[in-house]
Amino acid sequence: MLDKLKMGPTMLVTLLLITMFFLLAGRSKRKSISKKIPLLPSPPGLPFIGNLHQISSLPHRSLFELSKKHGPLMLLQLGSISTLVVSSPSTAREIMRTHDLVFASRPSLKAARILFYNNNDLAFGPYGEYWRQTRKICFTNLLSLKMIQSFSLVRMEEVSLMIKRIALMASANNGVVCVSEILNTLTCDVICKSVLGSSLNEERRKLLCELIRMTSFFLGKLSLEDFFPRLWWLDVLFGLEGELRRHFEKWDAFLVEFVEDHVSQLAKGETTSSTYFIDVLLQLQKDSSMPFVLTNEQIKVLLLDMIFGGTDTSLALLDWCMVELIRNPIVMEKVQSEVRGIAHGEEKVREEYLGKLSYMKAVIKEVLRLHPPAPLLLPRESLQDCQIQEYNIPKKTRVIINAWAIGRDEVYWKEPREFKPERFLGDDVDYKGNDFHYIPFGAGRRICPGIQFAIAVVELALANLLYCFNWKLPSDISCDSMDMEDDVGITNPRKEKLYLVPLAI
Ligand code: HEM
What we know:
By secondary structure, the protein is of the alpha+beta class.
């Protein structure tokens, strides 16, 4: 994954030495590449490393700057890998609609391969029959509307606990709460209950949060093999491979415990209905009408996809919502009066009210535009040669779609840097992959299957945060001093944690 190209000094020196050694080879390689794709705009690069040095630790930002100079369809040479960077709605449409099938695969990247059981999962797995079958399971059995509705009580319980936690934390900390931490606990607990069927105790939750944070880190970390496949052995030498394997062992131990527990519950007949994802998958394992038998490993990796895909992203979205609202008091006032008007007299905002909260929905959409939780979506790879506009794109070209840049495209968005939820009122633009100037969940065959699940959690949590409390910044923090930089990693939560003072109403 390209998201976080942080090079340590050892790695940098090694790269420079190898640069010298491979200088000629690098040159001839570039020539042959440029023969294959003669016309694509491409920033000039250095021998051997190509354009790698032009990518910062926040790649969506540096790619956006490069695209302003070189256009919305540019070819970067990242080490020995040709990478197509897509930065406009029309080019995104070419990739994810016109040529959706050609670009439906994912490259095999080191961290994903080790952590996701040899890419045996839905998110990082290559396009093919196995991916189609698991995607079908995901849509039909795990993330269907019926399943999402069945978790309504889980969401309500966890949101109520969150409100209690806020009050407790505030009274223990001179009125200040770490909103980021509260939201982390909420997203973790809702996902774990729905996926694994149980809440985690404090210690296990801490372990899971650490596993998720480190997975995002590793997926964004520079692996030499990803850009210089022949230098795979340097990842072993520098210890990255060992770190990844140890991290994988931790995930596996975490998941195996739940799987074994639920297998024995099923054997004893203690689990009668398919309530949680884990039980659904274990029951499918015994279903003779399935086109293939799900192995325990495949069950673990699908659980991992759901847990990892659902937590960090929803957390980033909720956290950015609160950040933007505190910085925009007029919007905060408007959205609070909408929520309070609709749920007036109730103890909490219940799910049946959410449909009426059109301004709050516009706030969430605006946050997804400015701060898409996965700013570069997930990388894709072409399955065959293809022509985009007048350019030939060879088979196995890696593709990065910059959703963060697309949400700032001046042709489609008036005053794109401004936070203006009103732009979505009375506008039927949605995030379901039909509007290519707005793709926070991706589009086409690989679009996120968890949209409904995520939105259900985010809307209920935000509505209740705004209904139950008024919010202000602690006295030592001002709006202007808030750092709006996003964190490095495959997802982009805000770098700094958000601390606020909740005032009960
Ligand atoms: C705000 C929350 C979320 C955001 C912004 C988000 C965003 C994304 C994006 C951008 C992709 C890649 C799409 C592409 O390549 O075109 C993706 C894929 C995926 N997401 Fe989400 N996601 C969210 C929540 C969830 C949830 C709750 C789940 C599951 C419980 C989930 C599971 C997945 C999976 C399994 C994939 C891989 C799909 C595939 O490659 O076929 N996501 N998501």
